[in-house]
């Protein structure tokens, strides 16, 4: 349990990839702080499961990632509760699919706020604590869309491209301080976020559900398989090991070969 005694904060972690991250860190002994929306009973069940797995503790924080003051508060409350923050995973994300001419401005604002600006706020709040410790791991969930684009996803693609720039910059600023800053860029992972894109894509492209899955979602992935949340989480866990201390400023693809072409 190599993360015993450390605290991991994971945004957007009540389901999907985020919860898989939290489970991986808890398995290695970390105190975990999860965040996100969802059914209260389900969230409490997940929190209790994580606490039992870690042998340490687990907390739930309901901070809204669209609101900067709440984002900062998430980090500060984690430090107040546990005395430290060692691992920060920026995972919260939302999506909207629409041609640019019809893209609602409020959807753009929300996607940029949650998918990009929240990562600035969490990172800015966490780095000073990591500097004091002389150790830290900041991992952000980007996307294959941090490297390539798809039509009708202007806000999401812009946010993920921006996240890579933020990651590289902070990696350079912290390179001598025992802190690594990296992105993981999955292809299509079968999560609620991906599933919720299907109706919008059906509408905008006039396709059936099966056509969206086979001809849109998995069209770009040569493996023709969805990535699993657990695969992404295991890579994040490796980035927390001492063996990964020289990996910083990187964007690591887990996309079934999507961006190899």
UniProtKB/TrEMBL annotation:
<dbReference type="InterPro" id="IPR020904">
    <property type="entry name" value="Sc_DH/Rdtase_CS"/>
</dbReference>
<dbReference type="InterPro" id="IPR011294">
    <property type="entry name" value="3-OHbutyrate_DH"/>
</dbReference>
<feature type="domain" description="Ketoreductase">
    <location>
        <begin position="6"/>
        <end position="187"/>
    </location>
</feature>
<protein>
    <submittedName>
        <fullName>3-hydroxybutyrate dehydrogenase</fullName>
    </submittedName>
</protein>
<dbReference type="InterPro" id="IPR057326">
    <property type="entry name" value="KR_dom"/>
</dbReference>
<dbReference type="GO" id="GO:0003858">
    <property type="term" value="F:3-hydroxybutyrate dehydrogenase activity"/>
</dbReference>
<comment type="similarity">
    <text>Belongs to the short-chain dehydrogenases/reductases (SDR) family.</text>
</comment>
<dbReference type="GO" id="GO:0032787">
    <property type="term" value="P:monocarboxylic acid metabolic process"/>
</dbReference>
<dbReference type="InterPro" id="IPR050259">
    <property type="entry name" value="SDR"/>
</dbReference>
<dbReference type="InterPro" id="IPR036291">
    <property type="entry name" value="NAD(P)-bd_dom_sf"/>
</dbReference>
<dbReference type="Pfam" id="PF13561">
    <property type="entry name" value="adh_short_C2"/>
</dbReference>
<dbReference type="InterPro" id="IPR002347">
    <property type="entry name" value="SDR_fam"/>
</dbReference>
């Amino acid at each position: 349990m190599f993360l015993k005694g450390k605290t991991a904060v994971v945004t957007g972690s009540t389901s999907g990839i985020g919860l898989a991250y939290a489970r991986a860190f808890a398995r290695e002994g970390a105190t975990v702080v999860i965040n996100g929306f969802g059914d209260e009973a389900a969230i409490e069940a997940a929190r209790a499961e994580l606490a039992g797995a870690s042998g340490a503790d687990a907390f739930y924080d309901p901070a809204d990632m669209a609101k900067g003051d709440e984002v900062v508060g998430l980090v500060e409350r984690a430090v107040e509760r546990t005395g430290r923050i060692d691992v920060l995973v920026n995972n919260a994300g939302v999506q909207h699919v629409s041609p640019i001419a019809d893209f609602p401005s409020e959807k753009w604002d929300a996607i940029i706020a949650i998918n990009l600006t929240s990562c600035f706020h969490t990172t800015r709040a966490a780095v000073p604590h990591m500097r004091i410790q002389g150790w830290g791991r900041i991992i952000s969930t980007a996307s294959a869309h941090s490297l390539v684009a798809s039509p009708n996803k202007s806000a999401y693609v812009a946010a993920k491209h921006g996240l890579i720039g933020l990651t590289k910059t902070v990696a350079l600023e912290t390179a001598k301080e025992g802190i690594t800053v990296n992105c993981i860029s999955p292809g299509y992972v079968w999560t609620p976020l991906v599933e919720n894109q299907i109706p919008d894509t059906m509408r905008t492209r006039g396709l059936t559900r099966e056509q969206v899955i086979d001809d849109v979602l998995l069209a770009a992935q040569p493996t023709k398989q969805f990535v699993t949340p657990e695969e992404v989480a295991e890579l994040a866990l490796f980035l927390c090991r001492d063996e990964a201390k020289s990996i910083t400023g990187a964007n690591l693809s887990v996309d079934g070969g999507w961006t190899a072409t």
